[in-house]
Design brief:
Blueprint (H helix, E strand, L loop, with lengths): L16 E4 L4 H9 L4 E3 L10 H11 L2 E5 L2 H7 L3 E3 L5 H10 L20 E2 L2 H6 L12 E4 L4 E4 L2 H13 L3
Parallel strand pairs: 1-2, 1-3, 3-4
Antiparallel strand pairs: 5-6, 6-7
Helix pairs in contact: 1-4
């Protein structure tokens, strides 16, 4: 995920934390792009017949809202779960905005892959990264300590920001 410096927030989001079921991988990444602490069932071992029960327990233990496409799981979760109605990621995010759970924004505070908090990258990390742009003056870079992944403002981040601005309303 790449971002322009002007949209980087100076504080860490302290809003609602989420956990998502396996059917919401794209929503998970979008919430992370938006700066929300979002874990995923995809981080759990596959094939566990008690996965739904485990997700509900994790949501309560970690004070997260479970986002799910499974109506029965949402019903079982009661106030700690929310049924996501659409298959379209922008409509999913809009549902969360409409319910005042998230705000329309893009930040550079979480890794889109692992959910770890990002920090500003140092020169050595930028220089060692094979996929970093050759001319990196006037760019701000961020680093995931866990994934060892570099993020910066570029066309992908600008396109994401434009899509959020164009398709979502507060």
């Amino acid at each position: 995920m790449r971002r322009s410096r002007s949209c980087v927030m100076s504080h860490k989001p302290t809003e609602q934390k989420f956990i998502t079921d396996r059917m919401l991988g794209t929503l998970t990444r979008y919430l992370r792009f938006m700066g929300y602490d979002t874990t995923s069932a995809n981080g759990l071992a596959e094939g566990d017949p008690r996965e739904d029960t485990r997700l509900l327990a994790l949501a309560k233990e970690q004070h997260r809202l479970l986002l799910t496409k499974d109506a029965e799981l949402a019903r079982r979760g009661d106030a700690s779960a929310l049924l996501i109605r659409s298959d379209n990621v922008m409509e999913q995010v809009q549902q969360l905005i409409d319910q005042h759970l998230v705000v329309r924004r893009i930040t550079m505070s979480r890794c889109s892959l692992c959910n770890s908090e990002l920090r500003e990258a140092n020169t050595c990390e930028i220089e060692r990264c094979e996929y970093a742009p050759k001319d990196w003056r006037n760019l701000t870079f961020y680093w995931c300590r866990h994934c060892k992944r570099l993020y910066w403002n570029g066309s992908h981040g600008r396109q994401l920001e434009q899509r959020v601005e164009r398709e979502l309303r507060e």
